[in-house]
Amino acid sequence: MQFEKIDKTQWQKILDNLETYPPFYSPGWLESYEKLRKNYKIGAFLVNCGDSYFLFPYLTSSILLFKALYSGPLGTYGGPIPIKGTPSHDCIQKFLNFLKKHFKKIVINFDPFNELQSISFEGFKKIEGFTHVIDLDKGNVLSDNFVRGAKKAIREGVTVSDSPDFLKIFLNEFFKRRDWVDKRLIGKDFFFNDLIRKKIAGLYTALYGTEPIAHVFIVFGKRYAFYHYGVSKREFLHLRPNNLLHYRVVEELKSRGFKFYNLGSSVGLPGVEEFKRRMGTTKFYTTTLLKNFL
Q1: Which domains, ranges and CATH numbers included, belong to the chain?
Q2: What is the pLDDT of residue 170?
Q3: pTM higher than 0.85 for the full model?
């Protein structure tokens, strides 16, 4: 097993050769995240297992003598990402053993389509979760019931804008009502602006007349989009603005040749899970590996 730390240009070239990848693997995404705190540093390793290779993007943080490594911050997906062949368990284990010598905490979140997530690694706690995904290569990807809701919104006069001008309104609503959101993002409008400027993300807003009543913040990888954040005004939910937002997002993603639309987990909210189920999503299981020496 051999590995080298690679620069961002090499890192992006490797990703460009993949058929598809989630946005959280890219240096563009992690560069924006790196700006949130002075002690955040990003990088990527290319690991040679002999007859196979894998890429390992990461973010590290340091607090006094405590150093942590995250393959994807805030629960987003990270490595190891197979590039050529299928890396062996032994090769990946040796690389993780190297990391354990330098970090007090390691968190690795696997994308649901990563073939390596089924492997158990020595010394790491394995946590299973799930996510909801739409395969955009299928014909009619949204359920008939969900589409009827979108058409109801259109009849009621709801429209959709993709203008970033609504970002401040979205963030004010979002952080006011979502206690589970990482507080490090509050007041960090530049993070969201940076992602939109680099075309890694897009904001879609449902309008009733001129009033914004619902928003979704979508991040883009290569043929892979992720529903990252969303918020809506409860008094307008009967107009089905969220149905229309996701209906329009799916239309755009299909026209751009995207394969996957990942809507994430349901964060323990039964209503959110039911909404995503009614969209016509398929549930995929995800794996997190955790090593904490504290």
Answers
A1: 2-130+286-292 (3.40.630), 137-258 (3.40.630.30)
A2: 94
A3: yes
